[in-house]
Each structure stands twice: as structure tokens, then as C-alpha cells.
Amino acid sequence: MSSAGRLAVTCLFLSVLAGAAHAQKQGGVLRVTHRDNPPSASIHEEATISTIMPFMSVFNNLVIFDPDSQQNLLDRIVPELATKWAWSEDGRTLTFTLRDGVKWHDGKPFSSADVKCTWDMLTGKSEAKLRKNPRKPWYFNVREITTNGANEVAFHLADPEPSLLTMLAAGFSPVYPCHVSAAQMRTHPIGTGPFRFVELKQNESMRVVRNPDYWKPGKPYLDGIEFSIIPTRSTAILAFVAGKFDLTFTGELPPELVKDVQSQAPQAICVTQPTNTQGNLLINRDKPPFDDARIRKAMMLAIDRKAFSDIISRGIDKIGGAMMPPPEGQWGMSPEFLQTVAGYGADIEKNREQGRAIMRELGYGPDKPLAIKVSTRNIPDYRDPAVILIDHLKNVYIQGELEPIDTSVWYARMARKDYTVGMNVQGVGVDDPDVVLFETYSCGSERNYTGYCNADLEKLFHKQSMMTDYEQRRQIVWQIDKALQEDGARPVIYHGQAGTCWQPYVKGIRLAVNTIYNHWRFEDVWLDR
Amino acid sequence: MAAYIVQRLLLMVLTLFGVSVAIFVLLRIVPGNIADILFDSAGLIDPADKAKIISDLGLDRSIPVQYVQWINGLFHGDLGYSYVSEKPVLEEIAPRIPITARLAGLALFFSVIVGVPLGVISAVRQNTWLDYVLRVVSLSGLSLPAFWLGLLILMAFVHWFGTIPIYDRVPDSIWQELELFAVPAAAVGFRSSALIMRLTRSSMLEVLRQDYVRTARSKGMSERSVTFDHALRNALLPVITTIGIETAILFGGLIVTETVFNIPGVARFLVEAIRWRDYPMVQNLVMFIAVVVVTVNLIVDLLYMLVDPRIRYSE
Fold this sequence. Notes:
The complex is a heterodimer. The longest helix of chain A is centred in the first third of the chain and has 19 residues, at 3-21. Mean pLDDT of chain A is 91; it is low at 1-5 and 7-21. In chain A, helix 15 runs antiparallel to helix 16. By secondary structure, chain A is an alpha+beta fold. Chain A is built from 16 helices and 17 strands. In chain A, strands 13-12-14-11-15 form a five-stranded mixed beta sheet. Chain A has a four-stranded mixed beta sheet with strand order 1-10-9-8, with helices on one face. By secondary structure, chain B is mainly alpha-helical. In chain B, 77% of the residues lie in helices and 0% in strands. Chain B has 14 helices and no strands. In chain B, helix 1 (2-29) runs antiparallel to helix 14 (279-307) and helix 10 (211-218) runs antiparallel to helix 11 (223-252). The model of chain B has no long low-confidence stretch (mean pLDDT 87). The A-B interface holds A 37-40, 45-48, 50-51, 131-134, 183, 186-187, 200-204, 228, 230-232, 234-235, 238-239, 241-244, 264, 406-412, 415, 426, 446-447 and B 31-33, 36-47, 49, 53, 82, 84-87, 92, 151, 154-155, 157-158, 162-164, 166, 168, 259-262, 264, 268-269, 272, 275-277.
């Protein structure tokens, strides 16, 4: 081929590539199944994916995890309502420059005052109050928010905290408008995002439509998104298989159901991956005899984590500590290090023999077992592991009796510490030690259901929070995690995995491997049909 | 007759009062309240915020005071606000009633037009192969759990027709309504039709052995006239009672069908409202269902008089 010919082919190839890059089609409505009725449309008031998935597209954050990156990491954060940000030299002030010309869905202009309003409300400093404020612990370190004109806002911290940026990049951190009440945000949210809220029909459906004034030209591609609430999983799957829906609710399909979907709809694209949801053991350390660390240790030695994984998920659930295990998790203990943690050794029988020895020392035995109630929420995701737990505890002379607790009173009972031993399942919004450690294990945190409080570890929580060197910080996080597991703070039993499926003509869906909460802006999704 | 109707209406009022007290008290006895459940989705409970919600919703007042407020509101057409959706209860309930009414109506229509004729045929052709087949079908209708049958129907539709008959849009024509409701109505009507068929059959068998039927035959009347003019009319009394009871059951008891076929009707909404302890929603929905039940009972009693002139409801 002549050089002119080669040039022509190269040009053609490049033009095809360019064409492919701009081949996204405008239009169409994405139909998504939804598992249940979201408690409200206000993301700041809820801690459930049921609210995040349908309503994240109504909002924008200051910054966001790069939607093209599969892993949510500190160094993969990109601008959204902020065009840039800068840390002060002492690491105590984070200043954002804000985007010009952004409008709320009701036409009012967005400004730095809205950012200040939002975080003043979250930190409890404003007169406007949220009815519930589950992310308050995230911002324990934020002392003040200041504005400098309409386009600059600064977060002033008590101590340096590089991870603050990861929390601000989470799906749980949208900017709310000052001029809209918290009550209205629960029923008719106003945002700056790619889609405008249309309606939330209780127990029926949710609808958002394209925001024609979105500040990203040409986006979003979809005309709208419809979420249909189908609480019966079988019906939802059959409806997806029949082509009534384009996307299943995220993280809702256990591995065996993913297999089922793929056998009935081979064209469907299904992804099974970690959800950063963990099953953990709650031990009320204020109630005798569990105030004795030896009993807590014996309980941990009784647990066969692999058996949990094999039974619950055919062996694909992962074993780890408080932080999500690698490679998806950035901070979890390595498999080698995990083997050094008491109760994680591969020789389960040896662990259990140690556990039995401890129990015998305390006066228990096969003829004199310790009778306890194992409380859990009365839904299958909680009940199933609780039953396995009861079976494992028998190995160290603990006779458990299942106490299923109605969902309506589960958190009330936990908050009152009205339980002895409990089986809990918990989702993590951001794979970052500051989120997990302060929310779950810090002294006095509302979500610290076991009331665990260790002054020495608390110092380490703060120490790691201030560190900028990833490797050094990770080493400390591992030490903390090891101590938490060995101390029975809230022993982690498994890290869950689940599947999401979509039709092949749905393009632009990108899931993260270390959370299910952060990739639902839907602005890059389009329909190729 | 007028006295009887007045007496029945007074009984209706008394029944509704009893239902209102029972549902109000029972709701508040069960553990957990709306404040606890609202916090459930946040994964934590802040005692101060919880106290504020309880106060805002008026749940810190005594139960009798709350009851009087509710009844007073009812008399003024104010059903209150839903704690969950934060919208007026009437606004939430109103669109769901026609959906359930259509589904229940179609299911009832299906069960009557299938159950009564098949019951008559089964009785007239007693101990023939047709009778045996119909009895087996009716027995299966009574034994198959609605949840299982519903899922089976959905699976069959997906497998053979590549579609699924669930409620996925608001119908804008009568044909679309039929398309959306026909399959779930047939699924739920199958059980009712089986019940009506068996009852019609046994009632017909009893009536067909009566002297007046033999007399009618001996007078040379056609078998058709004997069956429909003399036997069926008298055999219908227990069937009408059953249809009345089924109407009431269908209106409030479609939870399984509404869930499996994803129909946003009253029953599914009621279960969700109970789960959330959304007191205003549950109270008003249960009262509404109670009104339907007692009204249907009254209509059944009145129908008795029309069908059987021997019955006199005088003092």
C-alpha cells in the first residue's frame, strides 16, 4: 500500500474511532426495577441504596469519584460543581472554586451559600434541621464553612483530614439548595443534576426526566428514568427477562439468581461483584458474662468464616476485617496479614479447641453450656447468617436461641443495647477508614451499636486520619483492624457480593468494585436501540 | 322492611365504631412506632430527633385524645397526613381504590360467570366424567396457594409468550385495563370460582331432591325450566351469601395477587403502611375496607328478600 493509501486508511480508522466515541444516542427512557419503597427522596436523611439509586441523578456534588474508574479512590476524584480545589499548607483548610452559571432545577442560581447551607445543616450549625442526619459522624472534624463571594467556599477543619475529599465525592454528599426546605427535599427534591425529579408514587414508582439546562452540554443522553417498585424478587427477575425492564436494582441479585437470569436471558449483561456490605457479630460487652474478654475471644474462635461464605454465596463472599478486603478494597488486610489475626487462621478445629479451653476455664462445658439469645432482624439476609452463627457457637459450648426482631424495632433495640448477641448486616458508603472507623467503632458514635470504646485505638483513628502517605496510613489501619477483630469490637464475618444485570442495548453503566452507592448519576447512560 | 333497614344501618354504625376503636388501639399496642421506623432507614436513632418527630406527629398525646382528633377529622373530611409520604392521606388512597375495585370486580365477575354455571352443570350431571373433572378442577382451585399460582402464570407467560402480565403502566383505555387486569383477575378468581362452583353444586343437589322440583317435573315442565326457574333460584341463597363474603375478602385481601402481579392497589399499600406504622394511613384504609364489608353485607341481606319471597324481615 502506498503511503497515501496508508494515510487514507489511518484517517478512516481515526474517523471511525472518533465516530464511535461520539456515537451515544440521545433519547429513550431507562426502565429500572426497584426493590422497595424508598423512605424518602432526601439523600442526606437516608442511609439506603433505595434512595441513592433513584435520586442521585437529581443532584451534583462538589466533587465526585471518576465515573470511568472502577475503584473509588482518593486520587481518582474529579470536579463536579467545584472546578478545582486546594488544601492549605497546614492541611486544615480545603478551598473549592465553584462553577459559574449553574442553576437549580427551579431556575434559581447555585452559589457558595448553598454549599455552606448544606454542610452547616449536616454539622448541626444551622437553624434548618434535617429530620434524620445519619452522616453527621463523617464531618466530626469540620469546624466551619466560609464563603468568599459566590464562587468560593472553604471547609475549615480541626485537624488535617485528607479523606474529607472522599466523603465529599460520595453519592451521599449532594449539595442541597438553601431556598428549599428539608421537608420538601424529602418529597420533591430540587437539585442541579442531569435529571429533574417528577414524582415519587409511594409503593409504586419514581420518575425523573432530562434536565434541558444541565451545565454539561449534551448530557444526559436519556429523556428520563423510571423506577418501578417490585418488592417480589421473582416478579422483578421475570419482568427483566421478559424485556419489560432495562436494568435491575443494583446489588439485589445473589449469585444463584444471577445464574438464573443469565440462563433465561443469555443476552443480558450481568456483573457480580463486592458490595462493601459486611455481616458482623454484635456482642453486648456491658452484659455479663460478655463483659469478660475471654468469652468474646472464645466466640470469635468458634466462627468458620469460609463456611459462612460457602453457605450464603457458594463461596464467593470474601473474608476480611472491618475494611473491605483487597484487591477491590484499598484498606483491607492482606490475606497473609489476616492469618495473623486471632480466629482467622485456616485451622478451624485448632481455633475451636482453643475456644473450648477458654470456656472450660470459665466453668462451661458440654454438660453446662452457656445459653444465650442471638438477636437479628427478621429478614432473610440477617436470619440466614444468624442461624449459621448459632451452629458455630455450639462448638464452644454456647447454646444460642434465635430471636428474630421485627424490622420496625431492630435499630431501636440496638440503640438501647437491648440485646446480648446479635447478627448484623451493614453497608459502607465509602471505602475509607475515616468513614468506617469513626462511624462504627468510635466512642459515642450513634452507629456504634456495641458501645465499643478504646481510648488507645481512638488515638490511632485520629492519627491515621491525618496521614497523607498511603502506605504508612495503611499499615496503621491494618493494626487498628487487627485490634478491633481480636478485641471483639464487632467481629466481621463476611463481605458480601451481589449482581446487577442490564440489557445489552443499555450503554454507559459503570459499576464500582468497592461500593454500590456512588455511580448512579446516569448522565453517561444511553440506549443503543 | 323499613324498620329492618334502619336496624341494619344502626348495626353498621355500631360495627364501624367497634372497628375504629379496635384498629386504633391495636396499632398502638404493637411494638415499634413510626419514629423508630423512620430512623431504621438511617441506620441510627438520635433520641432528641426521635422525641421531636414524636411530638411533631402528635404521638405524645394520650390515646383517647388522638382517637377523638382522628374521628373529628373524619367527620370533617380530613383524613390527616401520611407520616411517610408527608402527603394528605386522601391523596394517597384515592388513586388506589379504583385499581383494587377493578381487579376485585373483574375477579368476582370471572368467579361468578365460571363458578355458577359449572356448579349447575356439575350437579345436573352428577357422577358423570364431566362432574368428576369439574370437581377435580375446583378442588385444585381451592388447594393451590395464590402466590405459587401467580408466579407459575408469570413464568408460563415469559416462557411461552415472551411477555409478562404485570401492572407496568397506567391504562388509558378499557382494552388496556382488560389487558392489565385480566390475568391477575383470572388468577385470583380461580379460587373464588372453585368455591362458588362447589357451593352451587351442593346447593343444587339438595334442591333438585326437593318435592317441589319433583312436582314441577311431573307437571311436564322442561328440564331447563325446572333447573333454572325452580331449582337454581332457590339454590342461589347460600351462593349469594358466599359471593358477598368473597367480595369483602377480595377488596381487602388481594395482597398476594397485588404483590405478585405488581399492582399498586389498596391491599399492597395497606401492608406497607402497617410495616411503616403509618397510623393515619392504616386507620383510614382499614375503616374504608370495613365500610365496604358492612355495606356488602347489607346488600346481601337485601338481596335475600328479592331472591326468596318467603323471607320476611318484619319485626
